[in-house]
Amino acid sequence: MKTRHLVPLLVFAALAVLLGMGLDLNPRIVPSPLVGNSAPEFSLPRLEDPARRFERSDLLGRVSLLNVWATWCVGCRDEHPLLVDLARSGTVSIFGINYKDQYRPALDWLRRYGNPYVTSGYDAEGLAGIDFGVYGLPETFVIDPQGNIVYKHVGPLDPAVLEEHILPIVRSFEGASG
Amino acid sequence: MKALGVTLLLIACACPAGATVFEPREWSDERHRQRYHDLIEELRCLVCQNQSIADSDAELAADLRRIVFEMIEGGESDEAITAYMTERYGDFVLYRPPLTPFTVALWAGPALFALIGGTMLAVTLRRRRSREDAGTLSAADRQRAERLIAGED
User: Fold this and answer.
1) Contact at CB, B89 and A131, closer than 8 angstroms
2) A24 domain-assigned
3) Which structural domain, as residue segments, surrounds residue A159?
4) Å between A163 CA and nearest CA of chain B
5) What CATH superfamily is the domain B17-93?
6) How high is the pLDDT of residue B20?
7) Which residues in chain B touch residue A30, judged by CB atoms under 8 angstroms apart?
8) CA–CA separation, A68 and A129 (whole Å)
9) Which B residues 24-63 touch A at CB under 8 Å?
10) Per the domain annotation, does A61 fall within a domain?
11) B26-79, pLDDT tens digit by residue?
12) Per-residue pLDDT for A178 more than 50?
């Protein structure tokens, strides 16, 4: 008889644990089917030099970061100094996709806050962004030397994400090539 | 009462849901229009996750609606359009995700809970009924009880 009275308590405890775990999840992070697969083909005019193009083949041969950014994106402004520092340290090549932005303000933005990108593709229509499954800026992809997406981070980068997730991947490829 | 009315009005103004964005589309075939509306109701917007791309005002939703429109007019099948979306955004974009080990709980959950609830209901009802049966008195018992109450014994 006594154990029967414990049942509601146990059900409650189980539910509390389950819901507590749920609180820890971020529903905005949607697992991307692209991670582990080849990066999609794209060809965009370069922001700094629209006569030239930035294509998937430019990413090959070394591990790189592909950062999707825009001047209207507040999170991009937050993470920008970190990208500038990372580029300056020479740890990894950073490429950009300037997503649904305006041409002039984007160039001014880079001039004002520094340009960490080897180059940025100007994706005015956002079609390259859609091919990369972009849904919330900023987004950062880690792309291996063969052009596969090995990791994706949605939201502004911070030192912890960089140190725990991104740099270990980058280093693993450096070790392999050098 | 008046305050309640005002509050309701404010709530009504704050929820643009259902007010599907007006986008003029030129259709080559009336059936395409129907397929378009069916499809955009079935695709989830990744920005406003509780809205379909038909309902969402997000820019990405507008882009995806345009892609659906162009693919339909370009002669693509519904399956090809759905595949296009899931290749980029995963099964998450589908309001009706396919049955996989990952979504088994989602599909089986409601039936499981209905089963548990139904069993509990059946057990409770049966128990209550047997208790009621035990409580009925035979005519002789009733007479005896009435005598006892009246204090004859």
Assistant:
1) no
2) no
3) 34-177
4) 26
5) Cytochrome C biogenesis protein (1.10.8.640)
6) 56
7) 46, 89-90, 92
8) 8
9) 46-47, 49, 59-60, 63
10) yes
11) 898 889 999 999 999 999 998 888 899 999 989 999 999 999 999 999 999 999
12) no
